[in-house]
Design a protein that fits this description.
By secondary structure, this protein is mainly α. The chain is 73% helix and 0% strand. Helix 3 packs antiparallel against helix 4. Bound molecules: fe (ii) ion (2 copies).
Length: 308
């Protein structure tokens, strides 16, 4: 094991049985297993990865604000206005990201990341407040058409964006196996949620589409459970085992299938040939997220192919 690998592991990821989602107090930190030789680390490029994340997620966040605004009850003008302010703030931040991307420097990218983190932390808190008011009872309860799972879902996407930017800002290096299983647990859950939203927003008369959406929901729930099992198996030492390659290939195949399903649905919705209450922008939004999942899995397979 190289010195660099040793220090990265020791600094951020102590091998053991509690990485990364145990409650700290419950971690058996007084014993570890010896790591199995060299642990491949995930490599990135600060400027390219920062710009890619900002250009993708800022547009996604702007659209979340729009979807929330459209689904609030018309009596909640305060929430409608606040959502609109986030929409405008993200439109400005997206323009800023495009400007920085024209001639990026480490300093301008770092400032962009920081501003995106702060804006998205505030937006995640707004989503939290809205979710709390949807699922409560009593005078603060709000109505409207935002499913609780949708708000939880878009909050998870905000948190994932923040944590990716934080990793870039602090130069955090992590084992490749951990990056891959975490990507998979995140994206499989996101895809399973999308399938459920689509099934519930299609017109009930569109029986075949509803059935297809339901079968994607079952597929991705099952993939997520398998990813969690793998995560648990790999966590103690973060080695790259052959199963990770097969599972990543399978994830790419499933991601491609749902991406194509969403692309076909988006086209039909745009042509008014599919009965639903899905706005075309929402259909395209979930298609772009599936595309990002496909691209991420392709990137990870490429990284895995470089591991001996
Ligand atoms: Fe989204
Ligand atoms: Fe999503």
């Amino acid at each position: 094991m190289t010195t660099e690998t040793h220090s990265a592991i020791n600094q951020y990821f102590k091998p053991g049985f509690c990485q990364p989602d145990c409650v700290q107090q419950d971690c058996p930190t007084n014993f570890t297993c010896p790591p199995p030789g060299v642990i491949p680390l995930s490599r990135g490029n600060f400027i390219a990865d920062s710009l890619e994340n900002n250009l993708f997620w800022l547009r996604i966040m702007m659209e979340h604000a729009l979807f929330m605004r459209l689904a609030f009850a018309c009596v909640n003008m305060d929430l409608i206005n606040e959502a609109q302010q986030y929409e405008q703030a993200y439109a400005q931040q997206l323009n800023q990201a495009k400007a920085v991307a024209n001639a990026p420097t480490e300093q301008s990218v770092r400032a962009l990341n920081q501003a995106s983190i702060e804006l998205t932390q505030a937006f995640a808190c707004f989503k939290t407040m809205v979710l709390d008011r949807i699922i409560t009872c009593g005078p603060t309860k709000i109505g409207g058409y935002n499913y609780p799972l949708l708000i939880d879902h878009i909050r998870r996407e905000a948190v994932a964006f923040i944590s990716r930017l934080n990793a870039l800002q602090t130069g955090r290096v992590e084992p490749l196996a951990l990056t891959i299983v975490r990507d998979q647990t995140f994206w499989h859950r996101i895809m399973a949620d999308h399938a459920k939203f689509i099934a519930h927003l299609l017109d009930p008369s569109e029986r075949e589409f509803v059935e297809q959406a339901n079968s994607f929901s079952v597929l991705f729930d099952s993939k997520r459970l398998q990813a969690l099992d793998l995560k648990s198996m790999l966590e103690p030492n973060f080695a790259v085992y052959p199963i990770l390659r097969r599972f990543t290939r399978d994830s790419l195949k499933a991601a491609t299938q749902i991406r194509d399903f969403k692309a076909a649905a988006t086209e039909l919705i745009a042509e008014c040939e599919l009965l639903s209450i899905i706005p075309v922008l929402l259909a395209d939004h979930v298609r772009r997220e599936a595309e990002m999942f496909v691209e991420t899995m392709e990137k990870r397979l490429n990284e895995l192919s470089q591991v001996k």
